[in-house]
Amino acid sequence: MAKKDTKTQKAPGQMRQLWRVYVMTAKGDKTSVLWASLGFVLTVLAAITFSAVTAPGNVTNLVLFSITGVLSGILVAMIVMSRKAERVAYMQIEGQQGAVGAVVANGLRRNWRGSEMPVAINGKTRDAVYRTIGPGGIVLIGEGPKSRVQPLLEDERKKVSRIAPGAPIQTIIVGTDENSVRIYDLKKSLYKLKKVLNRSEVSVVDKRLASLGMNISIPKGMDPAKIRASRK
Questions:
Q1: Considering the domain boundaries, does residue 228 fall inside one?
Q2: Most C-beta atoms within 10 A of its C-beta, which of 5, 65, 141, 193?
Q3: Among 68, 93, 118, where does a domain finish?
Q4: What is the pLDDT at residue 72?
Q5: Quick one: which of 105, 127, 130 has its CA closest to 217?
Q6: Which neighbouring-strand residues pair with 130?
Q7: What pTM was estimated for this model as a whole?
Q8: From CA 26, how far away is CA 19, in angstroms rounded?
Q9: SS (H, E, C) the chain
Q10: Which domain holds residue 81?
Q11: In the prediction, which pLDDT does 215 show?
Q12: 20 and 76 housed in the same domain
């Protein structure tokens, strides 16, 4: 009985949480409800039209297809809202330090590998470079203004090319500057890259690059030899 009660209590909580996400999405993206509603209506109309064309005058067939259309329409609307919710969530963290790491660590699929930890950081400006490996090759992702993060990307490119010679290397800069990729389009940009590595090659390259440490730039005027551990 206790297990049944627990399941009964969890269900409303999950539905409430889902509703809150959709409400947040509707507030963050005014077009989300419109697109979800459009998806629902078109799906229902498609089911009814199919029934009318394939079995004209058959009431039972029309009812069954209408029910199927409504259920499918609800699913389509939920998928649309889920995609919009993801976009709104990314927009809320856009410009924050570590936003790229969050996408790389939690959002990648299709045999792409990456870590939420950057491989290079400018200790003064906090600009960072993240590395992903997948079918599109090695992709270095810069987080920060293009003018500042470009040197970091070039340094990391040289390091990677020494460890994995011959492996395709591409760079992406995430930001709001011109020719930069917005944070919510990062995954799409990675998936659109031409496939140049198969699954086994991705694994081999990933193991090679695992030996590379983090590159952290030290601000000017600071002598690493004079840095001492703080006393408690």
A1: no
A2: 141
A3: 93
A4: 93
A5: 127
A6: 141
A7: 0.66
A8: 10
A9: CHHHHHHHHHHHHHHHHHHHHHHHHHHHCCCHHHHHHHHHHHHHHHHHHHHHHHCCCCHHHHHHHHHHHHHHHHHHHHHHHHHHHHHHHHHHHCCCCCHHHHHHHHHCCCCCEECCCCCEEECCCCCEEEEEEECCEEEEEEECCHHHHHHHHHHHHHHHHHHCCCCCEEEEEECCCCCCECHHHHHHHHHCCCCCCCHHHHHHHHHHHCCCCCEEECCCCCCHHHCCCCCC
A10: 2-93
A11: 54
A12: yes
Q: Are 177 and 146 in contact (CB under 8 A)?
A: yes
Cβ pair 140, 131 in contact under 8 A: yes
Does residue 119 sit within a domain? Answer: yes
Bridge pairing between strands 215-217 and 169-174: unpaired
- 68 and 84 share a domain? yes
pLDDT in tens, 155-183: 999 999 888 888 899 999 998 877 888 88
Question: Is 132 found in the same domain as 64?
Answer: no
User: Which residues does the chain have with pLDDT short of 70?
Assistant: 1-13, 213-232
Residue 224 lies in a domain: no
Query: Encoding tokens for residue 66?
Result: 């209408």
Tell me, what's the pLDDT at 214? Answer: 56
The torsion defined by the Cα of 45, 50, 52 and 57, in degrees rounded to 10, comes to: -120
Pairing of strands 128-134, 137-143: antiparallel
Looking at the fold, whether 127 and 61 belong to one and the same domain comes out as no
The pLDDT of residue 12 is 53
- The reported pLDDT for the residue numbered 205 is 87
